[in-house]
Structure formats: structure tokens, C-alpha cells
Amino acid sequence: MRLVVVAAAALLLLAGAAQAQPAILGFTVSSSPRTAGAVALPSVSVPNSPGAISVPASFTTPPALTQRLDLAQLHELWQRAGAAYGIPWNVLAAINKVESNFGENMGPSSAGAIGWMQFMPSTWLRWGVDANGDGIADPWNPTDAVYAAARYLAASGGQSDISRAVFSYNHADWYVREVLDLARVYGNGTVAQTADLQQLQQALGAARARVVAANRVLGAAQGRQREFRGESARLHASIDEAALLSDRLAAQRRAVQFDVRLDAVRSAVDAAQADLEQAQSGLRDAQQKAEAPSFTPAVGSLMGAPSYSGRWVFPVGGGPEVVSAAHTHHDYPAVDIAAPQGSPVYALSNAVVLNAWHEADARCGIGMTVRTEDGQTWTYCHLAVLYPSISDGVSLAAGTQVGLVGMTGHATGPHLHLQLQPATGWPQYQPWFQSFAGKAFRWQDAPTPLELAGDPPAPARVFTVVPETGDAVVAFTRSGG
């Protein structure tokens, strides 16, 4: 059954993948595909005219079943679509990876982007393609989506200037760099190597998640043990407080019975500690396997490798696709570096640990205070786990992995809280921090300078303090070690 929609409401184009100007469009909604037939691909010179495409009913909502393709099939698809529109296949591969992880995370995103190549709905209506000939231009279908991305890039000048075309796909400076760096990796490798990288990344992510989960279980068990120890101490104290022998015997019986439960809690802590050690061992193995390919910058971002700038290291790994920061933190100097839970956390410079705490406190959660070689003192907070090797007095080399991003303590979402002690200046205004913009993280509240091959160096950018960002992270102060 088909239903013609004469004037679709103009969809507000938010910042996100495959951006374009919103328009009033006519299009057809189809409840079922037809048998695939010959395909006449639309040109790149003009967008879809009213009624030119048929889209699935509720095309902004994920279908119950989505088509899956392995990397060999995707490689063939990228090549066909690229050849059809004069776009390098490896750029399509990189966009497919960055946008949806080859179809693993198809949204809708927080901005409303959908499908295999993360088009905004309004952009899909203008540039969507029925590439498989079933009569429907479906952003959740890999063939339609990849061909549409190739068409959009070509319409944006990608046949002659792929950098500018990628920028039009997503108006983010870091995005251009990340896509083109990753495209070079895919272009210089094979399908098997791409599959190996995918497996390494997935194994590393799973290993980090196991450590986060195991430490959460251990923390809960340790908290329960503290409660039971307190109750046990109270019960044993009541024995000596009893005046009558019968009361002392009754108190002693209660204490002994309770201590049986305390022993079970101790056993649970021991088991949780063993599980954490096993998970940490698995993470070390996964990190060792990912270490060699991580030397390539684009792959390093995917693996969460440390990013260096002189003697400094950005303290959170993962790259600007997933790591971000704002220029202010409420009304006092600090920075919240947002990143997915389990992202690796690094020593930001050569430093000595002044104070490390592996169990969460009420405000800062799990964290540490270090003094860097330039004499500054820094506090890290809200980690999911701080590695056992991090203890008071330990010397850390820049880039040493110290733990994983979390949301322990008073935190509303996963991030690393970083601040100077005393909090006399904003970390994000220090030159070393700003040198990582667009390379290790992206700004949440301002553009990141674009640096493309052949462009003249961008002038130094001076930022001013902006109003409250609304990140809802509670301010706190912690003394240095």
C-alpha cells in the first residue's frame, strides 16, 4: 500500500551527520518494498524532487529487523557506491565506521540522525537513494544508505575536494581529520586487516567493560563488608556492657551468629577481588594485542591510545568522536572531560602520585592527586577503577594508563573531572590542553579549528569565559595529598 504525502513538514536540521538546509518536500511513504528491479541512480546535480522517492513508513524509527553485512560484503558495497559517484571507497568505509560502527549503532542519535550512514531525516528526503531497486529509499538499508552517502559527498564536491565534502557531511573540524585519517588506514590495508582491527577494538572494549563491571561489584561488596564490620563491632561491644551473665551469653550468641554472616560477606569480597584481578589480566592481554596497530593515529583513536603533545598527554583516550570538554565548569576552575564509561585514563605528564584512593568517596569517587614535573598539582575524580599499581609515592611517566573513566562519587554521567590544587586556574585554558583540541577531544561549546592538508596554519584562538554549560555536574573541592 502506498500513501502520497504532498508536503512533509520541514524537519529542523540539527547539528549532526550529513547536514543540509531544511526544505518542504513531497515524498511517498511505502509500507512494503517491491521486487528489486533495474536501478537508475539519481544525479548529484539536484536533490530529490517532490514525490521522487518512497521511504518506509515511520522511516525515522529503527525497523524490527535490520540487514547485516559482513566486512567483505561491505567492502564490495563501498566500492560499487564509490565508483558510481566518483567518491573514494575508503572514505565511505571510514564514514560508515565513524557514524554507525558498520551498522552496530544506527541510532537515532541524540541529534536525530538515523541509519547506516547517520543521515538527518530532512537530508535523507533530499538525497536518499533507492539503490537496491526495491522501490524504497531506506536509510536503514546498507545499500541505500551507502549509495546516498556517496551521492551526497559528490553533490558536495567530493569528486574534486573530498576534504570539503566530508566537512559538509558533518560540520565538525575534528570529524574531517578523523574520517580522512581512517580512510587512509583502510585504503592501505585489506579486508582481512579491517576485520582484524574491528575485532581488536571490540575485544578491547569488552575487556574494559568487564573491568568496570567487576570493580563495581567489588565496591558494592566492600561497602557491605564495612556495614557488617560496624554491626559486628557493636554486637561484640554489647557483650562487655551486659551486667548479667545471661545477658552476656545472649549477646555473645548474637555476635557469633552475626559473624557467620560477616564471614560470608568477606568471602564475597574475596571472590569479587579475584574476579577483578582476572578481568584486569584480560584487559592487559587485550591492550598488548592492540598496542602495535594503535601507533597509527586513526587506529589509535579507535583503541583509546594516548595522544601526545610535547611532554603532555591528554588524560582521556578515545579521540574527538567520543571525548569532549567545555570551556567552563560551573563557577569554579575545573574541567569535566566527557567520555564513554570505560575509556582509558592516562597520566597527563611525568608525575608523582601524592594520594590515590581505590574506593569511592562521596564526592570525588575513585581518583588520585598527582604532582607533575612542572610543579602543578592535579586531581582526577570519578574513575570507574584506579589500577592497583597506582599508589602513594609512585612515579608515573606521561601516558601511563592509570584507570578507566567512570561516574563514581557525585557524578551525573561518565567523565573525568580534572582540576588543579588549589583550583586557581582553568585546566582547559592551559596551552597544553588547547593543543589537543580536534586531535584528542572536541569542544562542546565552541568550534574546533579546522586544519586540512595544504591549509595555512590556523591563527591562535583566544577564548573567553562562557556562561554555565548546564552539564549538571556538582562542584566539589578536595585537598591535595
Identify the notable features of this structure and list them briefly.
single chain, 3-stranded mixed β-sheet, Glucose Permease (Domain IIA), disordered C terminus, 3 domains, alpha+beta, 481 residues
Class by SSE composition = alpha+beta
Order of helices and strands: EEEHHHHHHHHHEEEEEEEEEEEHE
- Termini Cα gap: 70 Å
What does the largest sheet look like? 8 strands, antiparallel
The fraction of residues in strands falls at 15-25%
- Total count of strands: 15
> Quick one: overall form?
elongated
Radius of gyration: 27 Å
- Compute the number of helices: 10
| Fraction of residues in H or I helices | 25-40%
Overview of the molecule:
The protein is an alpha+beta fold and 481 residues long. The protein folds into three domains: 2-171, no CATH class; 193-300; 311-443, Distorted Sandwich (Glucose Permease (Domain IIA)). It is built from ten helices and 15 strands. It has helices at residues 71-85, 89-100, 121-127, 142-155, 162-169, 173-187, 191-241, 245-291, 297-303, 431-434; strands spanning 2-8, 25-30, 54-56, 308-309, 312-313, 324-325, 335-338, 344-346, 351-361, 365-372, 377-386, 395-396, 401-405, 415-420, 442-443. The strands form four sheets. Strands 7, 8, 9, 10, 11, 12, 13 and 14 form an eight-stranded antiparallel sheet that branches. Strand 9 and strand 10 form a beta hairpin. Helix 1 crosses helix 2 (89-100), helix 1 runs parallel beside helix 4 (142-155) and helix 5 (162-169) packs across helix 6 (173-187). Mean pLDDT is 85; it is low at 1-16, 19-27 and 451-481.
